[in-house]
Amino acid sequence: MKKCAGKFAHNGCEKTALMAVKDSLDVLSGSWKLPILVSLANGPKRFNQISKEVEGISDKMLSKELKDLEQNHLITRSVQDTFPPTVMYDVTEHAETLDKVIKELRDWGIIHRKKIIG
Amino acid sequence: MKKCAGKFAHNGCEKTALMAVKDSLDVLSGSWKLPILVSLANGPKRFNQISKEVEGISDKMLSKELKDLEQNHLITRSVQDTFPPTVMYDVTEHAETLDKVIKELRDWGIIHRKKIIG
DNA sequence: TATATTACTAACCTTTTGGTTAGCGCTTAC
DNA sequence: GTAAGCGCTAACCAAAAGGTTAGTAATATA
User: How many angstroms separate the CA of A36 from the C1' of D27?
Assistant: First the structure.
C-alpha cells in the first residue's frame, strides 16, 4: 500500500493514472473532435452534412478528424459505391462511454468560467 | 422545452454546453498542465523542484505553463526576495474542483486503452 | 578568484497544426 | 454541352507549440 498524500489523492498519484488522463486528452483535444461527436450523436450523417453543422471546420480537418475518430473506434464509416459516392458516419457504443467525461468537462467549464470572468 | 434526441442528450445539445467543454479543454490540454498540477497537489514546490519532478519539461515550457495556470487561478505564486530568489508554487482551492474531471478522464483513459490495444 | 546557485527570459530553430485552393471521377439536371 | 454534385486528397502556406542555448542578478562557497 502506497500513501497518497496529495490533494488529488483518490485519483491515484502514480504514473499510470497520469498516463490514463493523457490518453483521454490525446483523443479529445483539439477544436473539432467533440463538436463532431456531438453532431453525430444527434443521428448518423454524411460528410457534407457534418461539414455544414460543425461551423468553421475545413474539409481537410474534417477528413482528418473523422479518420482519427474512426481509428479510436468512436465512429464508424460506411460507404455505398453509388455515384456520387455516399459515405455515412455514426457514433459507436464505445463513444457513448464518453458520456460522463463530457458531463464533467461541461460542468467544470461552467464553474471555471464563473471563477475567471465572474 | 427543446427536445434533445442525441445520444449525449443529457449533456445538453446546445452550443453553451459545447462551449463549456471547450473552455475546460483549453485550460487542461497540452502535455504539461495536468502533470504540473498533480506534482503540486502533493505539496507546494519551487521552480526547480517541479522541473525535476515533471519529466522532460523544458524551463521555457514550465515557465509558460505556470503563468497560464496562475492566470486561470489554478495555482498561486509567491516570491521571497532573497538571493538567489525563492519562488513557491501551490495549488488553489479552485484547482481542487478539478477532482471529478481528472477522475473521469483517468477512468475513461483506462477503458479506452483496453478497447484500442485490447 | 572562480564557480555554483535560482528563476527565469531572449533569440533562434524545428515540428505540429490548421487553413486555402485546386482538382479528381462519374452521374444527373439544365 | 456543360455545370453541379460528393467525398475526399495534394500542394502550398501561416501560425502555434515547443525545444535548445546562452545569459542575467547577488551572494556563498571552494
Answer: 58
- Residues from chain B that touch A107, judged by Cβ atoms under 8 A, are 20, 100
Please give the sequence-ordered ranges of beta strands (E in DSSP) within chain B, or none if there are none: 45-46, 75-80, 86-91
Measuring from the CA of residue B50 to each C1', which nucleotide is nearest?
C7
Strands, E assignment, chain A: 45-46, 75-80, 86-91
Give chain B's domains with CATH numbers. 31-117 (1.10.10.10)
**Which residue is listed with cell 477522475?**
B103
Identify residue B85 by its one-letter amino acid code.
P
Could you tell me if A29 and B25 are in contact, meaning their C-beta atoms sit under 8 angstroms apart? yes
**DSSP-derived secondary structure letter, A108:** H
pLDDT digits (tens, 9 = 90+) for A50-88: 999 999 999 999 999 999 999 999 999 999 988 889 999
